[in-house]
Amino acid sequence: MTNSMNNINEVKALVHASFHVIEEHVTDQYQISFVIEQKDIMTMLSTLKTAGWIQLSYLSAVDWPDEEKFELVYILFNWDKPVYIQIRSKIDRNDASTASILPVFPGAKYYERECHEFFGIKFPGNPDYEKQLILENWDDIPPMRKDFDPKAYSDRKFTTREYSETYIVQSESQPSKKVKRESRKARAESLTGGKKS
User: Fold this and answer.
1) Burial class (CB in 10 A: 0-12, 13-18, 19+), 11
2) What pLDDT band is residue 1 in, cutting at 50, 70 and 90?
3) Integer Cα distance of 108 and 129 in angstroms
4) What is the pTM assigned to this prediction?
5) 127: domain CATH number?
6) At what angle do helices 41-50 and 4-18 cross, to 10 degrees?
7) Could you list the residue range(s) of the whole structural domain that residue 148 is in?
8) Structural domain count of the chain
9) How far apart are CA 160 and CA 13, in angstroms?
10) CA distance to 65, 70, 102, 153, 157, per residue, from 146 (Å)
11) pLDDT tens digit string along 50-107?
């Protein structure tokens, strides 16, 4: 097995040789992240897959409404050189669209559907990205966007319930959980003919 920091350095050399890296962060000897431009996503994923990072472990997004951006996050893993690579890239929040990565990672189909459902990001090239995956009959803005108001949604969708402000405090005169458990056990034994020896 090779040294983990050598693996990190190999990844850095590979990425910097071919791509403009906006930001880089080494989390530890098993994780590194790169921020790149959106136009480089497909090529970088393809390059890393060819180099052995064959598993797309995850694809999601982060909402940055103050910047009017979504940040796409792709996580790759290499089984021979155990290093997770996180690739991040920001896209316009008001026209949230990025090419599907299905040509490189066919397993991204469901990640892209989930990302569309929860953030509203479009993935042209994925014929199924608009099909609902988790949120059946959802009729509001995507719920992981920071401008989604869960209280307003709840007030609109569900009946209002009144809850009592009175709390019951268990008094010492009430049987404890242990006493109740022993009572149930004794009752069960009496129904089955007593304790087995």
Assistant:
1) buried
2) very low
3) 10
4) 0.77
5) 3.30.460.80
6) 140
7) 4-152
8) 1
9) 58
10) 7, 11, 27, 13, 19
11) 999 999 999 999 999 999 999 999 999 999 988 999 999 999 999 999 999 999 999 9
